[in-house]
Design a protein that fits this description.
about 110 residues, about 45% helix, about 5% strand, flat
Length: about 110
C-alpha cells in the first residue's frame, strides 16, 4: 500500500518538474530487488559478495542492509521464496488448471 502511494506520487510530480519519475522509480525499484537477490544468493556461493561490493550498491544512494528476521533467510527475497515453495510444495499441494489455483489434499484453496 505504501509502495503504491510512492509510485502515484512519482507519476503525479513528473509532469510538473519535467522529469521521468516513473522511469526513475522502476530503475531504483529494480536495483533494490536485484541487490537483495544478490545478497540472498550469497548463501549458495563459496565466495561471498559483500554489500559494498555489489554492482547494485551506490555510494550516492546506498541501499540499506537490515538485520535478518529469521535464521533461514537474509532478507525479504528469501522469505518470499520460502513462502512460495511452502505454498506450492508438490508433496502437499496440487495445481488445478480448471480453477487456476493451488489446493491442499483436503481440497481447500
Amino acid at each position: 500500500r505504501r509502495v503504491r502511494g510512492f509510485r502515484r506520487s512519482f507519476q503525479y510530480i513528473q509532469d510538473y518538474v519535467s522529469l521521468q519519475g516513473l522511469r526513475i522509480w522502476q530503475q531504483e525499484f529494480s536495483r533494490i530487488v536485484n541487490f537483495n537477490v544478490e545478497m540472498e544468493c550469497n548463501v549458495f556461493l563459496k565466495r561471498k559478495i559483500l554489500a559494498w561490493q555489489s554492482q547494485f550498491q551506490s555510494d550516492a544512494i546506498p541501499i540499506p542492509v537490515f538485520a535478518a528476521r529469521d535464521s533461514a533467510s537474509v532478507n525479504f527475497v528469501g522469505r518470499l521464496a520460502r513462502t512460495l515453495l511452502a505454498q506450492t510444495a508438490p508433496t502437499l499441494t496440487v495445481y488445478l488448471e480448471l480453477t487456476s489455483a493451488w489446493h491442499d489434499r483436503a481440497g481447500a484453496e
